[in-house]
């Protein structure tokens, strides 16, 4: 049975997280993963090149060696294992899954916040304080979206839940009640 990319990425991310935990270097492992994300982000197609069947391992290996030369041994070994199993094309997905795991373990909540106008810093702080308590987290990281169609209020999507406090929803609800 062939596994999909998401399942594979999740397994590699968990394995590296557990290994970093054993070596008591979770924060360093997270920082290294973010560095890998940056490298792949600055070099679009790197994963495809490193998993291209038209290139030999001997042609790809110097690229990988250069990629990992400044990382600690644990990260070097992890990247080499990904390379050996021909999964470099999945590296960015592995990093994403590692970040999700790291955030979950550290009770960091990633939330999409939709408002009609941009939030001020004071509003973001108040919203984060309330939301972190509501979801029993330590920290909230907002991905902000401005959508004038919600008219006002705020819609927050986090941890498979939607908290809709938009004026648009309130008006729609009121309209339905009047129609009854």
Automatic annotation (TrEMBL):
GO molecular function, one term: proton-transporting ATP synthase activity, rotational mechanism
GO CC, one annotated term: proton-transporting ATP synthase complex
Subcellular location(s) per record: Cell membrane; Membrane
Keywords of the record: ATP synthesis, Cell membrane, CF(1), Hydrogen ion transport, Ion transport, Membrane, Transport
Topology of the protein relative to the lipid bilayer: Peripheral membrane protein
Pfam families the record matches: OSCP
Keyword check for Transmembrane helix: no
PROSITE patterns according to UniProt: ATPASE_DELTA
Keyword Signal among record annotations: no
Top-rank taxon, per record: Bacteria
Classification via Gene3D superfamilies: N-terminal domain of the delta subunit of the F1F0-ATP synthase (1.10.520.20)
InterPro entries: ATP_synth_OSCP/delta_N_sf, ATPase_OSCP/d_CS, ATPase_OSCP/dsu
Family (UniProt): Belongs to the ATPase delta chain family.
Purpose: This protein is part of the stalk that links CF(0) to CF(1). It either transmits conformational changes from CF(0) to CF(1) or is implicated in proton conduction.
Name of the featured protein: ATP synthase subunit delta
Species whose genome carries this gene: Carnobacterium divergens DSM 20623
High-level lineage: Bacteria, Bacillati, Bacillota, Bacilli, Lactobacillales
Gene name for this UniProt entry: atpH
